[in-house]
Amino acid sequence: MGEDIFFPSVTMEAIIKPTLGTRNPIYDKYNYGIQLLDNDNVGIWIRADTANAAKHWPSAYVPFPTDGEWHHVVGVVENKKSVRIYLDGELKKTTPAPDPISIAYGAAQKPTIAYTQHLGGIWYAGAIDEVAIFEGALSDADVRRLHTLALAIEYTGKLAVTWGTLKQSMIERN
């Protein structure tokens, strides 16, 4: 991805079927992103512009289902209001948004999908599809509408899923 996303509000969306128990970056811009942690919590994080190190990373994380199925995940940062995580169209957690957001931190870093630049670089493990980034904070109704549209998609046979399946089978053989 070559261009940065407009601040101060942003929405990140993906449909994922991750390998649980591993850190899985979904979207990463170095100073904000959406990811699944190795403790199987999915969420959104953002870098705050503060001297207080304990408040550098406001976030909203919730447990990810362990059913092995596809799930729709949306993270929203609304300037001066909230950091929100949605799972399958439902708002799961809201925390206060940083004020101000640190745009300078990681400004030279390019946004990535299925890869994080933190901790020496980590690739997403599992299947990921329909990643979208929106300039601005989507409403609850917008997220529910996205979830309805996401359910209408048949994942089997899509390029991202087919490639992920091939890659996983190659890893298992070695």
Automatic annotation (TrEMBL):
Sections of the chain in a coiled coil: none
Alphabetized InterPro entries for the sequence: ConA-like_dom_sf, LamG-like
Domain LamG-like jellyroll fold: 8-141
Keyword list, A-Z: Disulfide bond, Signal
Domain of life: Eukaryota
One Pfam family hit: Laminin_G_3
Protein name: LamG-like jellyroll fold domain-containing protein
Organism: Geodia barretti (Barrett's horny sponge)
Source species taxonomy: Eukaryota, Metazoa, Porifera, Demospongiae, Heteroscleromorpha
